[in-house]
Amino acid sequence: MRIGIVGCAGQMGRMLVEAVLDSGDMTLAGGTERPGHPSLGGDIARAAGRNACGLTIGSDVDALFAESDAVIDFTTPDGTLAHAEAAARHRRALIIGTTGLSEAHRSAIATAAAVAPVVQAANMSLGVNILLGLASRAAAALGSEYDIEILEMHHRRKVDAPSGTALALGEAVAAARGVDLASAGVRTRDGHTGARPDGAIGFATLRGGDVVGDHTVMFAGPGERIELTHRAQSRHVFASGALAAARWTEGRPPGLYGMRDVLGLT
Ligand code: NAD
Fold first, then answer.
1. Neighbours of 2 (CB within 10 A)
2. Which of 15, 105, 151, 266 is the least buried, fewest Cβ under 10 Å from its Cβ?
3. CB-ligand 1 contact for 111 (6 Å cutoff)
4. Catalytic: 105?
């Protein structure tokens, strides 16, 4: 299977290049970076700390999609939008790990998913996808007297907050309780906030150091508290999840899928 990697000089991009080179069953079709990026013209594998592979980092998205069976995108929301449009033009599988997506980005992704298999997940790790299921079951089983708070911590360079994974956890527990996260979610607290509204789903965000990604879903009830925690110790878990998603798209009909589909957890 030929894999294209957009944003191939980024933190996740470099890890994905290494994962494809080590996979044994996949070949690297190529990689792109945004116009003006200092890595353009350099060797893709060398940018990932490996021996040169003879493929040069380019910016021609259409050429990359034409050469790939599936393209993996861990870039920025606007980059993802352009890549979703290219996936639709070329009817190629697209794996999206980018977070911070808005409605406009999601609508371009839906257009691509009408003609190609698209896997989109805020977190590609097996552990977080298990956590999503556990949190949803706990939210459904525990009454509304158990307040839900979602705490996340990431490295100092992360640009969006709360993390896409924290929001996905919020969506999962809101759905389990039959409420809408847009109205129940409390993303920040500052100053004289008043008492906690009944049924609120609170978020707290920490940033610092090189933390790969920690998430806790807390159910604080009368006299007891349940905390479900996942800690990612290496970005490898996201890269191997993305490769599993790419393999899973082979021969798959068009549609918008999640990691729970890929992992058979639905
Ligand atoms: P990063 O900034 O290190 O890498 C992003 C790369 O994309 C950069 O090299 C940037 O130049 C490139 N890029 C931006 N726009 C582009 C475009 N239009 N075309 C080609 N390349 C473009 O960031 P990162 O830590 O690798 O994270 C990237 C994204 O992936 C973030 O949204 C992050 O939250 C998300 N992420 C998701 C998961 C998951 O499991 N789903 C895991 C880790 C990170």
1. 16
2. 266
3. no
4. no
Question: 99 in ligand 1 pocket by Cβ < 6 Å?
Answer: yes
Architecture label for domain 126-232 = 2-Layer Sandwich (3.30)
Tell me the two tokens of residue 251: 């021969």
User: Quick one: which atom of ligand 1 is closest to the CA of 157?
Assistant: 25
In the chain, domain spans: 2-120+235-262, 126-232
Residue 127 C-alpha to ligand 1 middle, in angstroms? 21
Predicted model pTM: 0.90
Strand ranges (E), the chain = 2-6, 27-32, 70-73, 93-96, 117-120, 147-154, 185-186, 201-207, 213-221, 224-232, 255-257
Distance 31 CA to ligand 1 centre (A): 13
Give dist(CA 98, CA 88) in Å, integer. 18
Q: Which CATH number fits domain 2-120+235-262: 3.40.50.720, 1.10.10.10, 1.20.140.10, 3.10.20.30?
A: 3.40.50.720
Helices and strands in the chain: count of H runs, count of E runs = 10, 11
Report the chain (266 residues): mean pLDDT per 10 consecutive residues: 98 97 97 97 98 97 98 98 98 97 96 98 93 96 96 96 96 97 97 97 98 97 98 95 97 96 86
